[in-house]
């Protein structure tokens, strides 16, 4: 019976991704796709000239070699199909592990929809981290080396994912600490408390070094002239996002706080550490009315990536329930808003 449900979940996830591709690809102005078209036609474009993200440059160069000039649409459709297949696989194996069918499908689509449509470079880097992390969450031997390799590869695809490599390093350090099992149960609380303080500290650093950050971003070719707009709706939005963060942290902690193996420490570092840290940084930035939209956008993208990875871990651990599905549906709806209202 579970296998039949898993097949249905995988099929639904694949159909949902296909529907998203049919609606958005070629019909909505997807800025990142147009930018990558220039990279495809120019041998990696500014990334190659700046020496950044060499693995992604290699991927897009090989795409040009295989498909040739003028075939960028075929290249991008194949990439999208790759993400759709991964979403189906996550939904299938999530149900096999015991997760709720609805939650497995929505989490899978949530994890790969935006990254398959507009955040391609970040999406490929996300896959390099997410697949080993998902394997860590399944039954069987701990795939420590695979998760390390994936985290390192991701940095050379998109440098912004270095924060996920840091999660791996911190998790390994915590795993090696001589923490007694009775004290280990306090680790989620300790991680979250430290993360909130760290988020405030990062927010203060950003606000006090705005000029330095602006100069660095301009050198990377990032537009920094757009201001951040603040309204009552934005505060309500971040209040709702706080509920999402609390739910994900609660589910990660309840699933992993009784074990000290690496997969549990990694999941806790991610869901009880990184997610609250990024959320606190975002809220601090909004609350202090920081005026550089590019910085805020980067923070938000990192937060969504951490949320999506946490949801994948919950699904592949077999702990995703109706509440998980509701949270994922909320973040998925927000992703669609980001596509429709850039």
Topology:
Elements: H1 2-24, H2 31-41, H3 45-50, H4 54-67, H5 72-97, H6 101-117, H7 120-136, H8 144-157, H9 162-176, H10 181-184, H11 187-208, H12 210-219, H13 232-256, H14 262-287, H15 293-316, H16 322-340
Helix pairs in contact: 1-5, 1-6, 2-4, 5-6, 6-7, 6-15, 6-16, 7-8, 7-15, 8-9, 9-14, 11-14, 13-14, 13-15, 13-16, 14-15
Textual characterization of the structure:
Helices cover 80% and strands 0% of the residues. It contains 16 helices and no strands. It has helices at residues 2-24, 31-41, 45-50, 54-67, 72-97, 101-117, 120-136, 144-157, 162-176, 181-184, 187-208, 210-219, 232-256, 262-287, 293-316, 322-340. The protein starts with a helix and ends with a helix. The model has no long low-confidence stretch (mean pLDDT 83).
Helical residue percent? Answer: over 70%
Assign the structural class, choosing from mainly alpha, mainly beta, alpha/beta, alpha+beta, or little secondary structure: mainly alpha
Order of helices and strands: HHHHHHHHHHHHHHHH
Oligomer: single chain
Query: How many runs of DSSP E, i.e. beta strands?
Result: 0
Query: How would you sum up the major sheet?
Result: none
Radius of gyration: 20 Å
- Contiguous runs where pLDDT drops below 50 for at least 5 residues: none
Distance between the termini: 42 Å
Number of helices: 16
> What general form does the structure show?
globular
Beta content:
under 5%
Mean pLDDT score, rounded?
A: 83
């Amino acid at each position: 019976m579970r296998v039949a449900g898993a097949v249905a979940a995988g099929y639904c996830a694949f159909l949902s991704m296909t529907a998203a591709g049919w609606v958005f690809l070629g019909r909505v102005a997807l800025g990142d796709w147009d930018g990558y078209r220039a990279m495809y036609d120019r041998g990696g474009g500014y990334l190659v000239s700046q020496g950044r993200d060499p693995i992604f440059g290699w991927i897009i160069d090989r795409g040009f070699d295989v498909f040739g000039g003028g075939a960028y649409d075929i290249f991008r459709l194949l990439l999208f199909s790759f993400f759709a297949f991964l979403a189906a696989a996550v939904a299938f194996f999530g149900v096999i592990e015991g997760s709720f069918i609805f939650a497995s499908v929505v989490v899978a689509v949530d994890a790969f929809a935006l990254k398959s449509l507009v955040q391609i470079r970040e999406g490929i880097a996300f896959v390099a981290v997410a697949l080993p992390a998902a394997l860590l969450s399944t039954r069987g031997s701990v795939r420590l080396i695979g998760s390390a390799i994936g985290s390192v590869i991701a940095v050379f695809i998109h440098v912004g994912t270095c924060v996920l490599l840091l999660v791996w390093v911190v998790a390994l350090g915590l795993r090696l600490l001589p923490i007694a099992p009775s004290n280990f149960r306090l680790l989620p609380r300790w991680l979250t408390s430290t993360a909130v303080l760290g988020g405030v500290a990062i927010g203060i650093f950003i606000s006090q070094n705005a000029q330095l950050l602006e100069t660095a971003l301009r050198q990377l070719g990032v537009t920094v002239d757009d201001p951040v707009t603040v309204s009552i709706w934005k505060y309500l939005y971040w209040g709702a996002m706080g509920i999402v963060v609390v739910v994900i942290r609660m589910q990660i902690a309840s699933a992993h706080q009784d074990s000290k193996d690496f997969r549990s420490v990694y999941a806790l570092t991610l869901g009880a550490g990184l997610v609250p840290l990024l959320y606190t940084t975002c809220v601090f930035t909004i609350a202090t009315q920081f005026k550089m939209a590019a910085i805020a956008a980067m923070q938000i993208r990192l937060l969504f990536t951490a949320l999506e990875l946490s949801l994948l871990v919950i699904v592949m651990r077999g702990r995703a329930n109706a509440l998980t599905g509701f949270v994922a549906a909320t973040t998925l709806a927000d992703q669609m808003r980001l596509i429709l209202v850039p």
